[in-house]
């Protein structure tokens, strides 16, 4: 039997209570009704456990760490600050990455790994054929890839500029593992073209790659200088597209055999299509 408390004098009577009301309020004189009691010996139901999406959590940690390392360097970065920005407990960073050095290594590896994957895809598509190789397409593809990469991971340049003796070996190991193989393959591709007489015989493949890298990264490294001199938005799509075209023309002009000019690239050509495809892969 359920008993409702009597209303105090001077107050209007409470409405009659039902078992539902009592169950909701936890008010039963003799306990809940039999229909609501758990079977004898049955364990109390446990609240469902919160599930954690490990992949998304790691992405948030890596994004927060990339920003922290870029601003403060390895020595100045704090795991507590990274955890706070990522919205996780600091213990999770140790769980996924062991320590700060492991997190630092993974930040660089994630970024360079994306560029490396794109580079291998380009080389597979432009493998040296029996017919005349596509020199312009190679230049367009790699210049576009590098510029798109730094547009998405400009912080990596800042991280590497913060290099100290404590982190130099870490970064060099990751660069050697992720970036060196694909750029070595590009050098080999260029040298094969030179041996076949498809490009000028005075082209130094390593210096050509260094020049392309320098030209492609200047908009990220010297953004303030360019804004200050010419008041240009170096992140605007039309500016970046023009920069890509200019760099490609410089590279092709340097390597092409005199008297054998590569066909000019029209609007919506290989560069535009490949850059758009790489950008979609990065967003995905």
Structural class: mainly alpha
Question: Unreliable runs, pLDDT <50, ≥5 residues?
Answer: 1-5, 11-32, 262-284
- Helix share, percent: 55-70%
Which architecture name of the domain at 101-283 does CATH use?
Orthogonal Bundle
Mean pLDDT reading:
78
Q: How do the helices and strands follow one another from N- to C-terminus? A: HHHHHHHHHHHHH
Strand content: under 5%
Task: Sum up the overall morphology in one term.
Answer: elongated
Structural commentary:
This protein has 284 residues and is mainly alpha-helical. The protein has a domain at 101-283: Orthogonal Bundle (Tetracycline Repressor, domain 2), CATH 1.10.357.10. It is built from 13 helices and no strands. It has helices at residues 19-25, 54-76, 79-86, 90-97, 100-125, 135-152, 154-161, 165-178, 180-195, 205-221, 223-230, 237-255, 270-283. Helix 2 packs parallel to helix 7, helix 6 (135-152) packs antiparallel against helix 12 and helix 10 (205-221) runs antiparallel to helix 12 (237-255). The longest helix is centred in the middle third of the chain and has 26 residues, at 100-125.
